[in-house]
Design a protein that fits this description.
The structure is a homodimer. By secondary structure, the first copy, chain A, is mainly α. The first copy, chain A, folds into two domains: 1-53, Arc Repressor Mutant, subunit A (Orthogonal Bundle), CATH 1.10.10; 63-211. Helix content of chain A is 75%, strand content 0%. Chains A and B meet through helix 8, helix 9 and helix 10 of A and helix 8, helix 9 and helix 10 of B.
């Protein structure tokens, strides 16, 4: 086979592996067996590892597009003339992305210390999210005791609802998110328990990744 | 060995299996391998199945005490002279029971069609819960568009938070519950999406049990 033929084979295999991984991750999460991905792609397991030496490499490649959409969502929110409206739209967008794809849910709520590209994009989204929080509080929409760690809290809660209801009552996620947005509004009343520190929440995200 | 000796052996084995199952279910959930329970109890797997022919029998025996506490919590709530206060205390109690025991979380949020005794107690708790809802609404504390299906929604959300944060940031669960109670208050503002029907929520609970 010519060198060009080999390259085109490699490309085709890569595309097939990515398509299979997207389906398998969406249904079973990012810890799904690599064997199953190889089987659905119609390639050997050795081919999978030649294209994607680690699971993190495969995860980063599969979710690159979604991370771009996720990153764009915060830009849209920051351009909203009503920062509280932008905040609510942003939270709803992220939660609905979560609702349709179990794999992406895991990418959002867990940490990937080895997938640098993916992490950098997520970190930037988190930095912009804190800016959105600042504006939404200043505009008098978001309660002042809201902390950035309340977003991963909401994503973890939504993940629990999505895991249980995705097949039979997927509308439950919208209702949870609506309740929580009303609780985040400055009009909500009552004191809140002290939130976890950023360090503790980060540790929870790391640990969730390693013990699943 | 005498007949009395045999009976006392059987009793001791039963107690050891229950103690081991309690520990293993708390850490790994109610789908934990029966082999591991037998190993920790120091008995053979055949002995486990002789005492508890199905996994549901073992689950029902392990959680009988907790289901009693759970059932008592609703009686306490119904006796509170302030029904909204009773409602909030009840929700906090159930969620904190959930926070310390992964196995019990699963018992609460999933269905056990084959463990009749356990189910009857849970069903009775649910019936009393709807009575608590009626009173808390009438007293002007609970918003009128709250539905009973919002309780399993909250339990599923709390399960997601507990699963991710139990080891590193267990305080997160209290914060989620406080937010949701404020959202359930009649003072919360805003419309809510239509909730799942009882049938759909029930299907979600059944399905979650069968697909884990």
């Amino acid at each position: 086979m010519s060198e060009a033929g080999l390259r085109s084979d490699a490309k085709r295999n890569r595309a097939r592996i990515l398509a299979a991984a997207r389906t398998v991750f969406a249904a079973h999460g990012i810890d799904a067996p690599m064997n199953e991905i190889a089987r659905q792609a119609g390639v050997g397991i050795a081919t999978v590892f030649r294209r994607f030496p680690t699971r993190e490499d495969l995860v980063a490649a599969v979710f690159a597009d979604r991370m771009t959409v996720y990153a764009a969502a915060i830009d849209v929110a920051l351009q909203d003339p009503d920062p509280w409206h932008g905040f609510c739209d942003y939270v709803r967008t992220v939660c609905s992305m979560q609702a349709v794809d179990r794999g992406f849910t895991e990418v959002l709520t867990h940490s990937f210390p080895t997938a640098r590209g993916l992490e950098a994009e997520r970190d930037e989204a988190f930095r912009l999210f804190t800016e959105l929080i600042r504006r939404a509080k200043k505009a008098g929409g978001l309660r002042t005791d809201f902390v950035p760690e309340d977003l991963p809290m909401l994503l973890m809660a939504n993940a629990g609802v999505v895991a249980a209801t995705a097949a039979s009552a997927p509308e439950t996620s919208d209702r949870l998110v609506a309740y929580l947005l009303q609780a985040f509004a400055v009009t909500a009343q009552g004191r809140l328990p002290t939130p976890p520190t950023p360090q503790r929440m980060y540790a929870a995200m790391i640990r969730a990744q390693h013990t699943r």
